[in-house]
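TASK: fixed-backbone design
INPUT:
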């Protein structure tokens, strides 16, 4: 499998190089050159299979022959062995037609564990084979930092630096990040927002001399392997509920757009999906985009769902690239205009395609509290503000 940049001018890479690169040298994000196919027969064959088997069948086409079957299977088994539920990503039924996909059974209780436990092992495997060392730099609004540190702590060939916005992450995640006594782990609090942290990371990757000197790599969802690993639980949940003979709708809490984009990838590969509902908090750039057709910046406000306190959703560029005919020149121009003016529109045809599969909605803090109360009263389940 080969990987291309959304901006069109960076080198085309094989899987291992795309994992180590993280962000493309032209500022774009890597995506597969072609979407692999998950056939209806394959999906039916996954019903009742362990999560690790679903993971192998979904991810193997993205990896190609870069990693042997035995090594990839071993990494997958090791990645999810520490999860505290035998199903890894169990479904809990709320009512006749609603199910809750539990993604909190990993070591840091965040859904990011699904991808980062694997990514740490991918780094180890690739670096050991090449005799290399990398410096990982990442930005976090909470989830990514603690999960990335847990996945990369004490690894011989990795130094990891995580930037988080001071006072804008949950206290438990701040403690998860800042109390790890591992020599290769470094946590930095930034006086600003998550978007400021993300801008600093992108600037480091944009400085080619600095990037090459330190062998920079990424654990944020700009790294394709993060997206790849998250595709699995969409497939796992859907086949458990009857796919491919039943179409499923997913409501996805959304900040940086990586999680819901993984669902889009599953759909592009053949998973029958009725709709993706993008759920945002008061930082609602994505909801406003689907309402008005214009993506426009506004200040980040603190909410009860701090991991979603984001305005610039990096992974949205991957969706735009796919909807705009995979034209790197269009993406380069669009992202430059967005950077300069703070606003951006999709071509009408691309916007129509987006709206055919995605809807979006927002809840402010009052709405979040009301939803938690309502779900508790109706189903007995206590949900997180990010659910």
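OUTPUT:
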């Amino acid at each position: 499998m080969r990987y291309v940049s959304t901006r069109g001018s960076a080198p085309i890479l094989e899987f291992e190089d795309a994992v180590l690169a993280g962000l493309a040298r032209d500022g774009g994000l890597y995506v597969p050159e072609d979407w692999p196919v998950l056939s209806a027969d394959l999906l039916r064959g996954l019903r009742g299979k362990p999560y690790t088997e679903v993971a192998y069948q979904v991810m193997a086409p993205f990896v190609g022959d870069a990693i042997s079957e035995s090594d990839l299977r071993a990494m997958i088994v090791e990645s999810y062995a520490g999860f505290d539920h035998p199903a890894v990503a169990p479904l809990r039924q709320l009512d006749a037609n609603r199910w809750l996909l539990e993604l909190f059974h990993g070591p840091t209780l965040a859904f990011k564990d699904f991808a980062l436990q694997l990514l740490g092992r991918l780094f180890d495997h690739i670096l050991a084979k090449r005799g290399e060392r990398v410096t990982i730099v990442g930005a976090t609004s909470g989830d990514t930092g603690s999960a990335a540190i847990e996945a990369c702590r004490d690894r011989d060939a990795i130094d990891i630096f995580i930037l988080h916005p001071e006072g804008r992450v949950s206290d438990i995640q701040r403690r998860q990040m800042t109390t790890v006594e591992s020599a290769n782990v470094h946590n930095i609090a930034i006086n600003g927002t998550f978007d400021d942290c993300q801008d600093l990371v992108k600037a480091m990757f944009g400085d080619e001399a600095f990037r090459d000197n330190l062998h920079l790599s990424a654990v944020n969802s700009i790294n394709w392997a993060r997206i790849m690993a998250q595709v699995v639980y969409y497939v796992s949940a859907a086949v458990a509920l009857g796919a491919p003979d039943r179409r499923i709708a997913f409501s996805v809490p959304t900040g940086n757009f990586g999680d819901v984009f993984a669902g889009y990838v599953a759909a592009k590969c053949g998973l029958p999906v009725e709709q993706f509902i993008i759920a945002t908090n008061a930082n609602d750039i994505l909801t406003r985009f689907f309402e008005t057709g214009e993506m426009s910046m506004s200040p980040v406000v603190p909410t009860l769902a701090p991991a979603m306190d984001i305005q610039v959703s990096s992974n949205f560029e991957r969706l735009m690239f796919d909807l705009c005919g995979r034209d790197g020149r269009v993406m380069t121009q669009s992202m430059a205009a967005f950077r300069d003016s703070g606003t951006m529109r999709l071509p009408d045809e691309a916007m129509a395609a987006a709206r055919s599969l995605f809807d979006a909605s927002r809840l402010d803090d009052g709405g979040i509290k009301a939803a938690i109360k309502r779900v508790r009263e109706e189903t007995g389940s206590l949900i997180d503000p990010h659910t």
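COMMENT: The mean pLDDT is 95.
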